[in-house]
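Ops channel
N.P.: pipeline sanity check, posting one input/output pair.
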């Protein structure tokens, strides 16, 4: 008898692309929920009558493996939506993107519905209206806000991919936002680095020093009491599952290895920034893990690939260009080329990761790595980052 697959592993059998995007509450950039999109391998909308995959019945069990929010906006074919209507699960909090379809008459209070803003007069009354900022200019957007508000409980701007668009949405008090704006550095390049940021940069310089000795690395970590505490706490957590407790940084170096401790200490240092949205930390972890997993396919060093993904968020974390920030970090030529020019195998992996994160499906199709491999690696990375973030918050 064939062994039944775990729900998350079942999700990974989907032959197309799955994309997860955070939906923010604008003021504090807290994540309200995640938007999950299911697409063909070419990144196109699935046909509405496509066969229903086995994982749909397991979706309530799958969601916690890739999200710490118990609700989601789902963009999926009509046939899948009808399968969800039949579930007896009573704790669902799903909003279904009808994307041009007629409103289903299901009489089911477990679901709400989202529709898309169009240039013509808006006569539907879905719970949520998705307003794609790539389709409307600023004048049209502002002129139609009142009409949209009269017809819908919640307005959610999508493709908020610039800081100017983020400011526009905030000034017009939109309810929710989705886009890449939070991964971008502030354009205030002359902005001074705060003392705490300066200390962090000095720590990163020491951690990345290729000539640092194990004893000096341990001392560097131990000088930052908060960092050494977080490191030992994480290493002794269920996330690592080590056979025995680690009681010192020196012992951690022996058990996990020199490069891994440098990388984990760097990650924990960056995760301590409290003036940035938590989701940016999750992006850093997801990029790092996805790059690390791709190292197998590029025959590269997992530690170098991991560092490429992690440090790719430095500009957004510190609101400075990567060029200026990396000038002060003693990185290897391979890592520097990957970060600044997307060159070399680590650079190509990082570009794959960024393309997937940003939904650049045309570039994904042109990658040396098959789209189905990138999709599986992506799911593993967001699951890993979700579990790690849970440990960091506990």
């Amino acid at each position: 008898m064939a062994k039944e697959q775990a729900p998350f592993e079942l999700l990974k059998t989907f032959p197309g692309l799955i994309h997860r995007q955070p939906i923010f509450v604008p003021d504090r950039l807290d994540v309200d929920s995640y938007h999950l999109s299911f697409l063909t391998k070419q990144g196109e909308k699935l046909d509405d009558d496509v066969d229903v995959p086995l994982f749909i019945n397991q979706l309530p069990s799958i969601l916690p493996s890739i999200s710490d929010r118990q609700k989601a906006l789902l963009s999926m074919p009509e046939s899948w939506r009808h399968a969800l209507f039949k579930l007896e699960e009573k704790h669902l909090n799903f909003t279904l993107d009808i994307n041009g379809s007629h409103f289903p008459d299901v009489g089911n209070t477990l679901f709400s519905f989202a529709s898309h803003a169009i240039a013509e007069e808006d006569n539907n009354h879905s719970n949520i209206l998705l307003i794609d900022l790539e389709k409307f200019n600023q004048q049209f957007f502002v002129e139609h806000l009142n009409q949209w508000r009269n017809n819908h409980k919640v307005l959610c701007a999508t493709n908020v991919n610039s800081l100017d668009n983020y400011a526009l949405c905030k000034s017009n008090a939109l309810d929710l936002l989705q886009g890449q704006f939070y991964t971008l550095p502030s354009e205030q390049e002359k902005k001074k680095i705060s003392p705490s940021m300066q200390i962090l940069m000095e720590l990163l310089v020491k951690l990345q020093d290729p000539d640092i000795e194990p004893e000096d690395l341990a001392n560097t970590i131990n000088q930052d009491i908060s960092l050494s505490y977080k490191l030992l706490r994480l290493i002794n957590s269920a996330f690592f599952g080590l056979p025995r407790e680690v009681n010192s940084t020196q012992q951690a170096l022996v058990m996990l290895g020199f490069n891994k401790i440098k990388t984990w200490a760097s990650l924990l240092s960056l995760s301590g920034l409290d003036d940035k949205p938590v989701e940016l930390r999750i992006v850093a972890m997801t990029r790092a893990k996805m790059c690390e997993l791709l190292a197998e396919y590029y025959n590269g060093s997992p530690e170098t690939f991991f560092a490429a993904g992690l440090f790719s968020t430095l500009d957004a974390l510190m609101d400075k260009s990567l060029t200026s920030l990396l000038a002060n970090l003693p990185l290897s030529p391979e890592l520097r080329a990957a970060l600044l020019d997307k060159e070399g195998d680590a650079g190509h992996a990082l570009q794959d990761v960024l393309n997937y994160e940003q939904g650049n499906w045309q570039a994904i199709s042109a990658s040396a790595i098959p789209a189905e491999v990138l999709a599986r690696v992506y799911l593993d990375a967001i699951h890993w980052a979700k579990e790690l973030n849970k440990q960091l918050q506990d």
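N.P.: looks fine end to end. The chain has a mean pLDDT of 88.
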